[in-house]
């Protein structure tokens, strides 16, 4: 069965000198080990995350995709690359540079690798301009973080950006980043295990409960990473709150569960019971194969969860594995591996 992985990351081969054009002390850069097969994403002199070659080398990426039978993959920035904390013009130049490097990465296998752009979200005009430029250059959509400091997706400026993407037919993937924590989540990757799913649910609910979805054109193609975080599991709680508390429904004219037709999610939930709930809530037509490749928290055998879920029928598997992504991103992927 054809598989299109719509959620994977890359980081270009930029050194500290390149990164210093944005910020010498805190902009991210890539330190590659002597073997060329492993490395570290660095923030100034501090190691942020160990990484492997497929993150920056398209040859290694395609070799890994071949091993797990993935026909095509959509890459997007590692969220530390977003640059939202910097001055807007500098961030715009940085985003354009990273987007050009993403297309260079994809040029190794242009029929199999596609890219989502990053944008300087702190300035809506510049973000819209870069999203449109990137689309014209060959990107199949944009990836944004789920918030901008204290401003969630219902913020008027972020709604304006999403409206621009709706009008320009630019698909949007929302990825959690800069996870909520007051220092209590010190060990065991708890920000990634607890706060990251919560951040994603917060992004979805901010659009629903604020009434933002009433203002954004229905033509917006919007997807959330990591299976929508904790959204599917807690939707019953949210619906109950909407029915019982006027402060929950004051800006939201319909029950929250009636808005699941406004967005998509990926399949990166790692458990057949979680995938079944996700499909029950969202519908098989709104779940797309996503792996979080090539990070350790991603699905290592891309597509194995969907393939092993025997309760899915063949048309549902085909939709989740490839068909939904082809329609969402406007792709025409010819072959399976």
From TrEMBL:
Question: Which keywords accompany this UniProt record?
Answer: Decarboxylase, Lyase, Metal-binding, Zinc
Give, as in the UniProt entry, the pathway in which the protein acts.
Answer: Secondary metabolite metabolism; quinolate metabolism
Q: Which residues form the Amidohydrolase-related domain?
A: 4-331
Q: What is its EC number?
A: 4.1.1.45
Q: Which GO BP terms sit in this record?
A: secondary metabolic process
Q: Which SUPFAM superfamilies match?
A: Metallo-dependent hydrolases
Q: Kindly indicate whether the keyword Lyase belongs to this entry.
A: yes
The EC category is lyase
UniProt GO MF annotations: aminocarboxymuconate-semialdehyde decarboxylase activity; hydrolase activity; metal ion binding
Q: How does it assemble?
A: Monomer.
For this chain, the family text in UniProt reads: Belongs to the metallo-dependent hydrolases superfamily. ACMSD family.
- Protein name, entry field: 2-amino-3-carboxymuconate-6-semialdehyde decarboxylase
């Amino acid at each position: 069965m054809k598989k299109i992985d719509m959620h994977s990351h890359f980081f270009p081969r930029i050194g500290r000198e390149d990164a210093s054009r944005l910020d010498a002390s805190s902009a991210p850069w890539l330190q590659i080990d002597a073997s060329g097969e492993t490395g570290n994403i660095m923030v100034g002199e501090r190691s942020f995350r160990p990484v492997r070659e497929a993150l920056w080398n398209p040859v290694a990426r395609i070799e890994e995709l071949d091993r797990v039978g993935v026909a095509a993959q959509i890459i997007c920035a590692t969220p530390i690359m977003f640059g939202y904390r910097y001055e807007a013009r500098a961030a715009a130049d940085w985003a354009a540079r990273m987007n050009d490097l993403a297309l260079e990465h994809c040029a190794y296998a242009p029929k199999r690798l596609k890219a989502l752009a990053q944008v300087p979200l702190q300035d809506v005009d510049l973000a819209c301009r870069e999203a449109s430029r990137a689309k014209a250059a060959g990107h199949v959509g944009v990836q944004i973080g789920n918030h901008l400091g204290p401003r969630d997706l219902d913020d008027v400026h972020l709604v304006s950006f999403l409206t621009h993407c709706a009008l320009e037919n630019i698909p949007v993937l929302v990825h959690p980043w800069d996870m909520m924590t007051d220092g209590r989540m010190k060990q065991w990757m708890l920000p990634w295990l607890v706060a990251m799913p919560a951040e994603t649910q917060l992004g979805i609910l901010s659009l629903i409960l604020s009434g933002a979805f009433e203002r954004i054109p229905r033509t917006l193609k919007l997807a959330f990473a990591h299976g929508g975080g904790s959204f599917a599991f807690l939707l019953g709680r949210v619906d109950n709150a909407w029915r019982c508390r006027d402060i929950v429904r004051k800006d939201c004219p319909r029950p929250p569960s009636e808005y699941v037709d406004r967005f998509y999610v990926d399949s990166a939930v790692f458990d057949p019971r979680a995938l079944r709930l996700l499909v029950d809530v969202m519908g098989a037509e709104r779940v797309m194969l996503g792996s979080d490749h090539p990070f350790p928290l991603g699905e290592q055998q891309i597509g194995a969860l969907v393939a092993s879920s025997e309760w899915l029928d063949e048309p549902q598997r085909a939709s989740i594995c490839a068909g939904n992504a082809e329609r969402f991103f406007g792709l025409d992927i010819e072959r399976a591996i």
